[in-house]
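Can you give me the bound-state structure? Components:
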Amino acid sequence: MMELLKVEGLTVRFGGLVAVKNVNLSIAAGSIQALIGPNGAGKSTFVNALTGMVRSSGGTIVLNGKALHDQKPHQIVAAGICRTFQNIRLFGGMTVLENALVGAHRHFKSSMLDLVFQSSRMKDEEAQWIAEAAEELEFVGIAKYRDTMASTLPYGHQRRLEIARALLSKPELLLLDEPMAGMNSAEKDQLAQIITRVRQRGITILLIEHDMQIIRQLSDRVAVLHHGETLTEGTVNDVFNHIAVKEAYLGRAA
Amino acid sequence: MELFGQLLANAIMLGAIYALTAVAYTLVYGVVQLVNFAFGELFMVGAFICVSLMLPSVSLFGVSVAMPGLPLILAAPLAILLVGLIGVLVERFAYRPLRNAPRLAPLIVAIGLSVLLQSLAQSIWGAEELSFPEFGLSKLPPLVLFGSIHVNVMEIVVLAVAIVSMVVLTIFVKSTRLGRAMRATAEDPIAARLVGISIDRVIAAAFLIGSLFAALAGLLYAQAYGFVHPTMGFLPGLKALTAAVLGGIGSIPGAAIGGMLLALIETFGAGYLPNGSAYRDAFGFGILILLLMFRPQGLLGRRELNEAPAGSLVGTGAGKTPPQWYQAIVRLVESWLLRFKPGKTVLTLGVLFVAVAAAFLITSDYWLRILIFVLTYGLLASGLNIVVGFTGLLDLGFVAFWAVGSYLTSILFVLVLKQTFGIAPADVWWLFYVNLLIGGFLAALLGVALGYPTLKLRGDYLAIMTLGFGEIIRITATNWIDLTRGPMGIRGIPSPALFDFPLGQPRYLYLVGLALAVVIFACIGRLVRSYVGRAWVSIRENESAAEAMGVDTPRYKLFAYASGGFVGGVVGVFYAHSQQYVSPLSFTLFENILILMLIVMGGLGTLIGPFIGAAFWIIFLQVAQDIPFIQSHPELRFALLGLALVCLMIYLPQGVAARARVKLMVPR
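Here's the bound-state model for the whole set.
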């Protein structure tokens, strides 16, 4: 097993509140690691800290042997981590294809002069990534919407577009923050298939999700956060039989 | 000691007035998180109504109208109530439809309202100042305190009125039902609605009380300085906003402390610093900028109040449905355009051909000059559009870039080369073309320098900060007489020339301007249709998502400021040589607002919008001159502009060229 991401002692403080406390997590390359926990457990804060959107107050994040803590979000994307959002954050006033192309932003190398004079380098680059973006839209099944404004896309498709957009950054690790939220079971099934196919492409996934059915179906290992701390971590079966997890979710048995 | 005491007395009175106005800003901001720039104008309207009621007759629209000639004690409450009513109406018809719109929309409406009220006041009461009538208390001789400090009775009254009204307001907010509802709404509007508070009523109340306070402050200010004038509310309004931010916007005691503090700093700075009185207004803005950089929550503010604006105006379908007649016109134009079905190249070449042909078909120098204005403003608007339209950053200091270009070339040609070295401009004709580039780069540099401290700010605070920068630069240009010749301006800037061929005739100037426009238009277009344009628009649409997708947002924001600044600087150089005269009067906040309005009119975030807006507006200015009533009240045109802006934001936030949305990739 090759380790892709190693988080050690990650802590995030907001004033006096410790939202994430001393969390350790190690993700194997090519696996799907689930992160679960009750609302307010610190899952989203953990993701925000991983992606540099929230400053961590302590601990280390290492991806492929490269230290990432205290890096800015765009540097973390460049290092190979990209994410989707729990509350969809698309660029509403841009078309679906343009949204996807923003995901590919880090690959563009043309200089200002290339742009102003529309050099062949610029045109090639643009054509290449438009083609790749079209492929990813096809991959998540929304190719026919490519010229639609993202804000008018149906809800389920907006979630798929978020995934396509993140995939275009060519991440090694994809963070999916509650991708199933607000979907019906048919939509969940389709999305689960997409996630499986992403994994088949060799992309490692950190999946935050509330739907235990989906977790069981997709993930290799599960970590449980509770009050900002790791309650337990292990294989799906181990964790689901863990007594403390049940208590965290359901309350102490009488 | 004598000076100190006198300054202190003056500062306290001024502080009381700032504090009262600051309450207006703070109250409304606290409840709806909106900077209602129009409070400065309500301040002025309050003073005007009060004075009108006190006089036996006033001239309204040039017609003498009999007035009751009330004493101050009756006129003041009446004026204040009337302004309160205006405030409520403004909220009902201008802001309420935009309550769920992105932040940029109400902000632009606030600016539009300011222009509307100010220009309307100018048309109604005339552009001359009116002196404040004498009344009982003002005739009393000043009291002498500590042997040498003169204090008018009214100054004491002002302070007393301010203290009493603040205390009453504090009690109201603390312990009445409506006051509690206001605090609850400020805390969490959704939760407040869930527990049965009528948000509409609470917001209307905040606007009512705010307007009452603004009007009260306005008439106190007017009696203290002895006059009323349509622009009198502008600076005190901004100062009061500064005071509110200084104290911590949203906090009533903060407004009081902020007002006093600002007045003290300003008065003592003007009194003791060398040349301080000239830079008096710059102190306030300087403090504002430092504050926003280092402590945006102010002295007593609790939390960071500059959250991300929710989305953009463009493409989100914000706004009500435009009226039937407008839709009919759009359908007509579109069907007409569709009949032609011009390809992109054909359309571009066609427009270009018409534009060039115009130079030879139009024989009137007058109209050619007007076309030069259309190009100049269209280009300026295109520059600002990069920042506001594409990147979504509301910039109210854009004129500074224009000024930098203009002054650079003017100082170089007139003050340095001609007057210091005696070099004739004709010998260095080529320098004009070099200056276009230098002016552009200098302005771009300034754009980065001014943009850097604003990077962390979003929404309203960003607008306020850029406004502060713009004003400081204008104040400097006005007062640094050795460099800029101050308000006199610089004359005798040579017209452009090509070798021995002078290009000073309007026809040639127009062609030079057109060439510039084509180059700049193409460059902006090419930047926008690339990953750079996509990065800009992604920042506008959702900054945190843009960040998460790997866009280095600070870098692209700075690049937007630099690009916009570059365009502003280039146009500034052209402007100076085409007008042959520059003065600080060309670079006011009003000009900035005008340029902003041109973009909004044409279409934020479209390439052609700025030019459509500029053509609309400048041709309207000319045509309207022939309408008799407007002839005698030219300011009405600007009132109309303000009104148009408000209506556009409500009904058509994407502007008239909404359908001309730019594809953010190379067209295939």
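A couple of observations. Chain A has ten helices and ten strands. The interface with chain B takes residues 51, 53, 72-74, 77-78, 82-83, 85, 89-95, 97-98, 101-106, 108, 110, 112, 115-116, 118, 122-123, 126, 130, 149, 151-152, 165-166, 169 of chain A (CB under 8 Å).
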